[in-house]
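Help: why these numbers?

___
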Amino acid sequence: MSELGRWWSPYKISYTYSQCTWLLKNLMEMREGIWPPDPDGRSSYTDPRIINKSGEYKAYKENMGTVVGTLERRLLKTGMDGALAYLRFTVELSYREIAMLFHLHKDEVYIRANRAIRYCVGRRDKQDAYQNLPYLNQRT
């Protein structure tokens, strides 16, 4: 599927790598309470009256806020690497531009930004501190 064809409603988000980068690319709109429109021409997300475990209906903004808040909370745990990912995917600076800003090599920016995204992947939050997860220190 092409990047343009990727679209998820809030209740379909399971925090895969693709979903995390897509969420970051659309973060500014989502902070304003606007879910990105579906590229297939359908309108933006509308709440299908999601029922939570207690039997109460979840509000649209609450569901969107939970998705965005979870990603931001996880990204904050990654420190500087999360900031690099934010600049790459939300602000849409190139790896080279970010490297120039922070006096880093562009390969290091790529590795660190993608490591931060990998930390955010998964339905559950990681229990270990970001720096203590060995698989995150592998090169991509």
Observations:
- Confidence is low (pLDDT under 50) at residues 46-52.
- The radius of gyration is 16 Å.
- The CA atoms of residues 13 and 19 lie 7 Å apart.
